[in-house]
């Protein structure tokens, strides 16, 4: 197992669109294990492969309080069941230290493959729904700051650059 390096906004590699996974093999399972370890260590509730500079459609999530319910989604596809938006405070391991309200639909259906390559379907709500949408956005090169006003995004960018210089 290994802790992977997480890319930070505004790194252009976070803008790449990830390719579908064609084979669920040992290498992919190892990557998922490393991503879970990285996510738990950060700590965070979700991590997309894009954030560790692997541009394949894989995300890991755990929204449980006890941090003992890992969820791995391979090639996730989202269908919105009810587009009523709901505000949630979102943060991101690629935008460390910033939390902002983002409006997303809450009722969705997700289809994905598990680590054995078997398809499954979820109809999550609450934090899990928001988290899945946030992580799938990463696979499409999108960040939660893209939903904010340009001014807010610019402020975050400047503050983050300052912090990155301070720790460099
Ligand atoms: Ni994120």
Textual characterization of the structure:
By secondary structure, the chain is an alpha+beta fold. Helix content is 29%, strand content 27%. The longest helix is centred in the C-terminal third of the chain and has 18 residues, at 150-167. It starts with 25 loop residues before the first helix and ends with a helix. The structure holds nickel (II) ion. Residues 92-94, 134, 138 line the site of nickel (II) ion.
List the defining traits of the structure above.
single chain; 168 residues; 5 strands; binds nickel (II) ion
Number of strands: 5
List the uncertain runs. Answer: none
Report the biggest beta sheet as strand number plus sense, adding barrel if it closes: 5 strands, antiparallel
What structural class should be given to the helix and strand makeup? alpha+beta
Calculate the terminal CA-CA distance, rounded to whole Å: 26 Å
Shape: globular
Task: Give the averaged pLDDT, no decimals.
Answer: 96
Strand residues, percent: 25-35%
Strand order of the largest sheet: 1-2-3-4-5
- Helical segment count: 3
Topology order in helix (H) and strand (E) letters:
HEEEEEHH
What would you report as the Rg, rounded to the nearest angstrom?
A: 15 Å
Helix content: 25-40%
Distinct small molecules bound, one entry per kind: nickel (II) ion
């Amino acid at each position: 197992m290994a802790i992977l390096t997480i890319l930070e906004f505004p790194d252009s590699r976070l803008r790449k669109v990830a390719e579908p996974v064609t084979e669920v093999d040992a290498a992919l399972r190892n990557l998922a294990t490393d991503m879970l370890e990285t996510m738990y260590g950060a700590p965070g509730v979700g991590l997309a492969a894009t954030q560790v500079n692997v541009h394949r459609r894989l995300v890991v999530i755990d929204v449980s309080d006890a941090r003992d319910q890992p969820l791995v989604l391979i090639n996730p596809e989202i269908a919105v069941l009810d587009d009523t938006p709901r505000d949630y405070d979102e943060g991101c391991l690629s935008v460390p230290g910033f939390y902002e309200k983002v409006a997303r639909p809450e009722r969705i259906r997700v289809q994905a493959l598990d680590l054995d390559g078997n398809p499954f379907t979820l109809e999550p709500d609450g934090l899990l729904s928001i988290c899945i949408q946030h992580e799938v956005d990463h696979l499409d090169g999108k960040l939660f700051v893209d939903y904010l006003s340009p001014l807010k995004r610019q402020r975050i960018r400047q503050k983050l650059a300052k912090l990155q210089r301070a720790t460099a």
